[in-house]
Amino acid sequence: MDLGLEGLRAVVTGGTSGIGLATAKLLLAEGCNVALCGRDAARLEEAAGPLRAAYGDRVLAERCDVLDKAQVEAFHDAVVARFGGADILVNNAGQGRLSTFADTADEAWGDEFRLKFFSVIHPTRAFLPTLEKSASAAVVVVNSLLARQPEPHMVATSALRAGVQNLAKSMSVEFAPKRVRVNAILLGIVDSGQWQRRYEAQAKGGETKEQWMAKLAKEKGILIGRLGRPEEAAAAIAFLASPAASFITGASLEVAGGVSRFA
After folding, report:
1. Which uninterrupted H or E stretch holds 255?
2. CA gap 87, 83 in Å, rounded
3. Is 60:34 a contact under the CB 8 Å cutoff?
4. Does the pTM of the predicted model rise above 0.85?
5. CA torsion, ordered 136, 21, 193, 96, to nearest 10 deg
6. Is the pLDDT of residue 194 over 80?
7. Taking a C-beta distance cutoff of 8 angstroms, is the pair 181, 174 a contact?
8. CA dist., res. 6 & res. 238, Å (int)
């Protein structure tokens, strides 16, 4: 199936590792020009170097903290200068916070609010005028299943993820007359560096990573019996961002291996 991504211009925040990097790689393979950003210059170069070697000027990598409005605006300007505009925005930056209600201080609530909301607000606000000029404009918000299925050990992240889901839906309604689609994916547990570290710390005897993760999946109620892969999340993002999904907006797609408990 041809997703119709050839020649489109995509922006991926949090693009230095995991789902963001997997998404950048897939979009490039599908024919997009891709701009990615990250806060850490060294990690950004490590991620972008091989992409530049493979795709040349179709890759733009810029250091940018999405919580810094001025840096996001500078990133936007760099994208327009290189590619002439943007058709796709993937809001991927962000991470979770382990804490219960009892041990989450006011400052932590504030930090989590700022991270979850403004990692979406700043890039969307900066790129929206450019997206409005595109005939294939799409925004994809990378969110978590916690938005609908909260966990008490991640109370702040769960609450704010729910708010981000509401924000994405609200943007989809407001932007629809401008022909800018907004969709979200809801992630379950996806294999990443943190899970590799936990495997190394917790695995017993000759237990392989696959065996350890299968046990973890069973404990977490993941019906497919394993953790997700970044490439699987990237595939969902690429579809929702593509012209193949041109009649889909305001939707959320679970990428969670059947772990959800709601209808």
Report:
1. strand 252-255
2. 10
3. yes
4. yes
5. -40
6. no
7. no
8. 12
